[in-house]
Amino acid sequence: MKNVTDSFVSLGHWPFAGSFGFNTDILATNPINLSIVLGVLIYFGKGVLNDLLDNRKQRILNTIRNSEELRRGAVEQLERARARLRKVEMEADEYRMNGYSEIEREKVNLINATSDSLEQLENFKNETLHLEQQRAINQVRERVFQQALQGALGTLNSCLNSELHFRTIRANIGILGAVEEITD
């Protein structure tokens, strides 16, 4: 905390007559730089992000519609299976004397097969929705990361001169050396 307050106190000691300098104290300047980068990203990336999200929303809605059509088809198939089941039940009453157990097994098999088909279709729909959501999330993350990286690189390239660049590299090498000594 002392470094942060020292950086603001030292502002009074800077010469004002035509000179300009960079504050290389990382603890004092990082929150400022991060807030500027985040503000720029939010301001310029909002439209692109909204477009991406709208496109993803449309794809997900289309997938939901397709899944609903599949579900309707499965419901129709279930209705046909129920009609067939009623027919089989009527035949079962007629043939009760000849093989009640055989017809009952066919009925159970038909119900199980239809139930399995419906369950598989429901699972497929849920998997499709989950995959589309994950793909949308990953695409949005990738776009935001690319934009953040481009903005940060642009900011760094516009702000760093060669002397400051070399000092920053030397400071980072020193930090990495200290971290390496701590881990050994």
Automatic annotation (TrEMBL):
The chain crosses the membrane at residues 32-49. Residues 64-98 form a coiled coil. Its main location: membrane. Keywords: ATP synthesis, CF(0), Chloroplast, Coiled coil, Hydrogen ion transport, Ion transport, Membrane, Plastid, Thylakoid, Transmembrane, Transmembrane helix, Transport. One of its GO terms (molecular function) is proton transmembrane transporter activity. It is found in: Membrane. HAMAP family: ATP_synth_b_bprime. Belongs to the ATPase B chain family. This is ATP synthase CF0 subunit I. The gene is atpF.
